[in-house]
Design a protein that fits this description.
Blueprint: H1 3-15, H2 22-33, E1 45-51, E2 55-63, E3 69-77, E4 84-89, H3 109-115, E5 119-123, H4 143-152, H5 157-175, E6 179-185, H6 187-198, E7 202-208, H7 232-235, H8 238-243, E8 249-255, H9 263-273, E9 277-281, H10 292-309
Parallel strand pairs: 4-5, 4-6, 6-7, 7-8, 8-9
Antiparallel strand pairs: 1-2, 2-3, 3-5
Length: about 300
């Protein structure tokens, strides 16, 4: 084994989880992600509204900073549970559109949510789809370019995405009632975990195609730069990050043949964190949803019942 490998393994043993207090972990996590100035107005502009047989689709843009606008789509079921709102966070690929496509690894999870009665909010995360940089139009995404720029300013791309999702929660809070849950796939699950850890407005969270130990995933092979946050391992490995969601509900699904976030490592993280339910299915790096989606809607329904009895 090369000397440099010994060095990295020793660093891992010495540095992981050196911040042990939950409040200190949360403060360190917020600082590590970086801060961003809020836009003065919290007013989304509607671009269009379309009626489908079983739901209504509306497209909006929401100012998040003075310069950035977050495009998102709102799906409202006909006759569904208007008090269950789900933030749907896509992973790498063509952008938010993948969460609507059956032939994608995302398995149309956003559509399946609305078909089962949830109000779904589907944002286009920075660096994907229509939110790529001009120089990256021929590329699949702008993750490397955006992340490397932000790191030089003491900020992170994950932090920007979490910030914009939090602004979207602000808008949801002003325009709708009901409980808000979150489901994220792959890189979107990273954002879902960080958002749920730092924002208690998320009442239930599903992480799909994610939640391996960092040692076995983003440190074991080359991953997108948007996964890397300075100082994150000092805050904790994946089990310690999962613990930050407590006591709110957490569900993790993982495919047995996931080559990016190995399923056995997910089991290890869950066992160590002692928090969260899980579905381990036969498949690869993909959304399954057969148990996760009903679980999420059930949890949001329970939260609503508890609020109604207060």
């Amino acid at each position: 084994m090369a000397e440099i490998d010994d060095f990295l393994q020793g660093l891992y043993r010495q540095e992981v989880g050196t911040i042990t207090c939950k409040d200190e972990r949360l403060a360190a996590l917020r600082e590590a992600m970086g801060d961003f100035p809020k836009a003065t107005m919290l007013e989304a502009t509607c671009l269009y509204k379309r009626q489908h047989p079983s739901f209504t689709e509306s497209a909006y843009v929401l100012p998040t900073t003075a310069e950035l606008k977050l495009p998102f789509r709102l799906f409202e079921p006909v006759g569904g549970n208007k008090e269950a709102v789900v933030l749907a966070l896509h992973g790498h690929g063509a952008g938010a559109e993948e969460a609507l496509q059956e032939d994608s690894s995302h398995n149309a999870f956003a559509l399946k949510l609305v078909e089962q009665g949830a109000v779904v909010v589907l944002p286009e995360l920075a660096g994907f789809g229509a939110r790529k940089r001009k120089q990256d139009q021929s590329e699949q995404n702008s993750c490397f370019s955006l992340a490397s720029h932000l790191l030089l300013y003491g900020k992170t791309l994950a932090g920007l995405r979490v910030f914009e999702c939090a602004r979207l929660l602000d808008w949801i809070g002003e325009t709708r009632r009901g409980n808000v849950g979150c489901i994220g796939f792959s890189g979107g699950a990273l954002i879902g975990l960080l958002l749920a850890a730092t924002d208690e407005r998320i009442k239930a969270t599903v992480l799909s195609g994610f939640a391996s130990l960092m040692r076995d995933s983003i440190l074991a092979s080359r991953h997108c730069l948007d996964n890397y946050i300075p100082g994150l391992l000092a805050i904790g490995e994946t089990p310690q990050l999962l613990e930050l969601v407590k006591p709110r509900a957490l569900f993790i699904e993982s495919g047995s043949d996931d080559h990016l976030f190995p399923s056995e490592s997910v089991k290890h993280a869950l066992h160590e964190s002692k928090w969260g339910e899980a579905h381990f299915f036969a498949g690869g790096h993909q959304v399954n949803g057969t148990k996760a989606i009903p679980w999420l809607l059930n949890e949001l329904g329970k939260e609503q019942q508890q609020r109604g009895t207060v």
